[in-house]
Amino acid sequence: MKKLLIIIVLAFVITSCQDKNVRHVQKVAHYYAETNLPWVIYYYDVVGKDSTWVEEKWFHENGVLQLEGKIVDNQREGVFKGYFPTGELMSVGKFVKGKREGKGKIYYENGKINIENEYRDGKPAGIWKVYDEEGNLRDVKQY
Question: Which domain, by its residues, includes 34?
Answer without folding.
Answer: 22-142
